[in-house]
Amino acid sequence: MKLENIIVFMGAPGSGKGTQTELLAKKSGYEYFSTGALSREYATHKDDFGHKIKSIIDQGFILPIDIITEIFTKKFETLVDKPGVILDGYPRTIEQAQLLENIMERYEIRNLQALFLEVDKKKLKDRILKRGSVAGRADDDPAVVEKRFDQYMLKTAPVKDYYEQKGFLIHINGDQPIEAVHQEILKKLGIK
Length: 192
What we know:
Elements: E1 5-10, H1 17-28, E2 31-34, H2 35-43, H3 48-58, H4 65-76, E3 84-88, H5 94-106, E4 111-118, H6 121-135, H7 142-166, E5 169-173, H8 178-189
Parallel strand pairs: 1-3, 1-4, 2-3, 4-5
Helix pairs in contact: 1-8, 2-3, 4-5
């Protein structure tokens, strides 16, 4: 079997990417991974690489391209024999989107769809602060939340426009209950 389909989940921090990625993976049978979760896993490693990643994440910054490339490529190469892959939190910059295109070309993957979860900014902040109080994630701390939004607007929002121009972007109303968002995603992807 050869990897044929990639679905990218996009949206601001707290938009529900992780939740919807997991739901879609269960329904579609596609493999999925979150570069955020993978980065946080690396951040627990007690080596120099782990400490470096932890420091960057705790400050609310997006990981530099060399680090994210290493993490992403290692994981992606373990999935090339699956029918489809769902990406949560990647790509976050135009440079990462171009890296993904290069990987797709190398493995002759033709199908890419980018789902953008649209959610009101105030609702996003409320979700993040609630999640931070429950999950205890360092990057959900109120002092870091605003920096994450600034980083998102500066680096990640342009990827949305990039995919829109290429005709890959599918808009999803993320201001609905979880199941309603999931159903909209399934409908727009043509998954029954």
